[in-house]
Amino acid sequence: MSVTRTLPQRVRAMATVKHNEFREMLLELRMTLMNLQFFDTLLTSFIIFLAGYLLISLVYPGWRIAALLPAIAFFGVHVWMRIRRNMLNDVEQNFPLLHEKLRTAADHWDADNEIVRELKTDVMKQMRSVESAAFVNERNTAARVTIAVILCFLILFIHSVGLTGIAGKFLPQANPTIGMLDMGSEDTDNPDYLAGGPGGVSNLEVEGDLFGEANVAKLGNEELEFTVSSEGYEIDIRDVKDVRKREFDEVFPTDVGSTSAETFEENIPKEQQEIVNNYFKSLTNE
Amino acid sequence: MRSYKEVFDLLHKEVAKVVIGQEEMIQQVFIAILCNGNALLEGYPGLAKTLAINTISEILDLSFARIQGTPDLMPSDITGTSIIEEDRGKRVFKFQKGPIFNNIVLADEINRATPKTQSALLEAMQEKQVSVGNQIQKLDLPFFVLATQNPIEQEGTYPLPEAQLDRFLLKIKVKYPNEKQELEIVDRFTGNARRATPRKVLNKERVFFLQNKVLEMPIANDLKQKAVNLILLTRNSKNLIEYGASPRASLALIMTSKARALMMGRNHVSSEDIITMAYPVLRHRIIMNFEAERKGMTTDDAVTELIKKLK
């Protein structure tokens, strides 16, 4: 095959090989840079998520899922901006020998003339010294990984000591009384429900006096103890005292007693009793 | 690419045997030749403009003619005319070629010639042909017009209209030599030392070859965009410029940047080429507004401002 080829054909074939080599090199370079930038963006997005998660856990634990939104938004925008930007500029910034050469060669990857061929060869030679480590800012990456770890620990800590939902304790909407009064299917033991999480009681539109007096509603999460007085059914919460244990030390009075009651009975002989009965019946009939 | 740089270094070296200093002017004249364009040289008298161009034509082994612009210069003095000649007993009209039928034409003090003569010259520059009577005569290629004009003594001159100025690829400013160069000029031309004669380095074919190489020079897309943005800025900066440059300026900027890159021995155009070439490409293509002129700004100052804005 090579014998039958004319010199220009062989030259063209050689050029095509170089052409493909250069194309592959560009593809590899772009993929490497994209992976690095993807990791970089992912790490920053993760930090944003953790920071958001921590903040929301402290304030409104029920909305923790919302921490994903800024992270996803950042990731999307950053990736879009990175794709739009010419990544080869980053290589040129790190390797001044390739300044303007790399993007020129990349823009003319399909051109084939003496000058472009020389440029491609030149770029490929200089690309040998390009290492992917040059595009990773070690200090910056280490700092961001440390921040992510710290945030993870903080999240674990606030959950373990129960620091979540601080806002629920201060905001008027978060009223546990409402939850207790509502004996429906909702999980009233769930703090999210009481603190105004999704489906929580504070999200209901409540008329002012539906659940009683406003001053009662202000009691918040305080636990109440009250005893029903044995003397009456009316409860005055302000007058509730501790239960008094009462002992009766007096002896029951001895002079108080009872005897069986005596009934009056006439002594009528049995055979006359019927005559008496008939007499009274006749009186009744009269 | 090193070989191209060696060629241009040799050209400069040969010109330097005759012309002392003026490296920038000589480089820009070569750039105009590589781009197959014409150049307008502006400088005070006695700055070796004519000598430099004459020397360049010798080095390139191209035919050279010089036309002195005067108010009584006629178009036929440039293009040539038909004369009656006897041929085997018959009288026939024969076209007598004018000085325009050379490869390099130096139009000295072009602004002293009348507009009619100027336009005859400018037709040749643009179309590479001349119309004489009802005949069209093609010019010898390569063909370059290198015109000069004097920035002083504007009395009795016919300044070139903007449309005609636009046809010059570059407007080259010829500066005074520095002290060292001036001393060397004095030594060389006032002594009895034998003057060196430059060697022929190139010829027509090689000039064509180099012109093709300029076309092959690659330029990155973002640099191309930068060059176009610079031209667009000339049209949009109304605080400085009354009338901006035409699309011909975009072509000129890219082409001359490519030629400069080739001369520098590079295999790509750099932003430095674009910035350097922006001055000779734009200085005759923009018209400053009254406010900028009142402040004493030159077109070069305006170009500097635009480059700053572009960054």
Describe this structure in words.
The complex is a heterodimer of chains A (286) and B (311). Chain A has helices spanning 7-59, 68-84, 88-94, 101-107, 114-127, 138-160, 166-170, 176-181, 191-194, 214-217, 270-285. Chain A has 286 residues and is an all-alpha fold. Chain A has 2 domains: 7-170, no CATH class; 177-228, no CATH class. In chain B, strand 6 (129-132) and strand 7 (135-138) form a beta hairpin. In chain B, helix 8 crosses helix 10 and helix 9 (221-236) packs across helix 10. Chain B has 311 residues and is an alpha/beta fold. Chain B has 13 helices and 11 strands. Chain B has helices at 2-16, 23-34, 49-59, 75-79, 115-127, 162-165, 179-190, 204-216, 221-236, 247-263, 271-282, 290-294, 299-310, and strands at residues 39-42, 64-68, 80-87, 90-97, 104-108, 129-132, 135-138, 144-149, 170-173, 241-243, 287-288. Chain B folds into 2 domains: 1-71 and 102-214, Rossmann fold (3-Layer(aba) Sandwich), CATH 3.40.50; 217-311, Helicase, Ruva Protein, domain 3, CATH 1.10.8.80. Chain B is globular, with a radius of gyration of 20 Å. The chains are: A mainly alpha (286), B alpha/beta (311). Chain A binds chain B through residues 86, 99-101, 103-105, 107-108, 111, 113-116, 118-119, 122, and chain B through 1, 213, 216-223, 267-271.
Topology:
The complex is a heterodimer of chains A (286) and B (311).
Chain A: H1 7-59, H2 68-84, H3 88-94, H4 101-107, H5 114-127, H6 138-160, H7 166-170, H8 176-181, H9 191-194, H10 214-217, H11 270-285
Chain B: H1 2-16, H2 23-34, E1 39-42, H3 49-59, E2 64-68, H4 75-79, E3 80-87, E4 90-97, E5 104-108, H5 115-127, E6 129-132, E7 135-138, E8 144-149, H6 162-165, E9 170-173, H7 179-190, H8 204-216, H9 221-236, E10 241-243, H10 247-263, H11 271-282, E11 287-288, H12 290-294, H13 299-310
Parallel strand pairs in B: 1-8, 1-9, 2-5, 5-8
Antiparallel strand pairs in B: 3-4, 6-7, 10-11
Helix pairs in contact in B: 2-10, 8-10, 9-10, 9-11, 9-13, 10-11, 11-13
